[in-house]
Amino acid sequence: MQKEALSKGFIYLLLILGSLLMLLPFIWMISTSLKAANEVMIMPPKWIPTDIQWGNYIKAWFSAPFAVYSVNSVIVLIASTIGELITTILAAYAFSRINFYGRDIIFSILLGTMMVPGEVLLIPNFVTLSNLGWIDHYQALIVPWLASVFSIFLLRQFFLSIPKELSFAAKIDGCSDFRFLWSVMVPLAKPALITIAILKAIGSWNAFMWPLIVTSSENMRTLPVGLIAFSTDTGTKYELLMAASSMIILPMIILYIVLQKYIIEGVARAGIKG
């Protein structure tokens, strides 16, 4: 009994230390956001500011058109999340319930594309969008991200865990595949769909490289790209940069905390059956 208690205590200690290590950058970010400019680069660093500068958040907000960036980020997030959910539902159902020639081969090829680094696709995608005249438009920020192989794989695994007897019974009652999908499968897959939506929302909100490449005007920039406003030829205003960063990540932290149980449930149930 004592041995088991010591073992659990050691595990908890490791988890606490790991959590503190993960939280350290966030603590430093918040601490820096509240410092005066002359305290930011002091060595050794001061974790608690001498004089808390709440005004840094106001200065950061008005240092660039963050209201415009926020609207763009929200539009891209909503459009890309809804689009990915639709394509994921349709593709996952096809790969899990509909028997067609070459289904497993096509699905294996799709999984294989996950091995390709995203950086390799930057130039081909940019050239394609440039030829379509979509650069510096919402289409460039949304359309390339309307489908995700990982999301299709996750939802397919969830669909496979749903008994086939439900589809047999529905077909006997005269239910079409399309109606069965939206009336039965989608409601049952709510945990997995919420998981996919959350992961997509976080990824879309935090995206930096792609929006930086395909946007050239301030009217089309998103929040992460807007952070470059604090880095100029004369240097970087770290206290304002950290204040803006804190404001940007706050909505996603709240979203994750509120809905984290669905992420755990969705991932756990998706692995029941392969």
TrEMBL record:
The chain crosses the membrane at residues 12-31, 66-93, 105-126, 138-159, 180-202, 240-259. It is a multi-pass membrane protein. It is found in: Cell membrane. This is Carbohydrate ABC transporter permease. Residues 70-259 form the ABC transmembrane type-1 domain. Keywords: Cell membrane, Membrane, Transmembrane, Transmembrane helix, Transport. GO terms for cellular component: plasma membrane. Belongs to the binding-protein-dependent transport system permease family. Its main location: membrane. One of its GO terms (biological process) is transmembrane transport. InterPro entries: MetI-like (IPR000515), MetI-like_sf (IPR035906).
